[in-house]
Write a structure and sequence with these properties.
42% of the residues lie in helices and 17% in strands. It has 242 residues and is of the alpha/beta class. The longest helix is centred in the middle third of the chain and has 22 residues.
Length: 242
Amino acid sequence: MQKLSIIIPAYNEERYIGEIIARIKRVNLNRLKLRREIIVVDDGSTDRTAFVASKINGIKLIRHVKNSGKGAAIRTGLKHAAGDIILIQDADLEYNPAEIVKVVNPIVERKADVVYGSRYLDPVQKARNKSFLKKAHKNAYQLFYIGGRGLTLVANLLYNAKITDEATCYKAFRSNVIKGIRLRCTRFEFCPEVTAKVAKRGIRIAEVPITYNPRSFEEGKKIKMRDGIEALWALLKYRFFD
């Protein structure tokens, strides 16, 4: 039976970490004949994230002494992942673990080696995205939305990736693929770096539609304009180097 490693990079997510792990544990992987491994990488949290996670049975907790960034946490998780398939799961509740089965299924069925969960393939979800943009602080969220779509466009132009959602959290990989890529990311540039390096190897990125429940900056969303600029630079840089 194959193993699925679920890597959760977490920084100051004490409010959500227990619930996201509980939801992951409720996912029925029997149909896919997968065993589950949950790896939480606490990225130097200053709240009780690590303490809450340490009280939960059946997970592997790894702690960074200081905050190093999401990309660094993912890289640490990859070093400890023993699964045949590896999936990235944010620590908040923006992405629904019930859809993990949908995301990893093409890999299990040997139809793909890399799968992204796209927030833009389902027309109902696309309508929800637009509705969220009309809420408080809409200008900030519109910039975030446009930035994500722009990065996808750049990824398609530079790498012929043929994807709709470069910045999605839900990315699943056959283990030998992701571990065969030398990652340098420390912050949110994990997404563009891994997209660039997968595409440069000629590996097709499959996509499946997923739902998405975006949280506000007041609720703890951490990505900033700086991260969008770094992501764009990563796409440009890795087109010609590394």
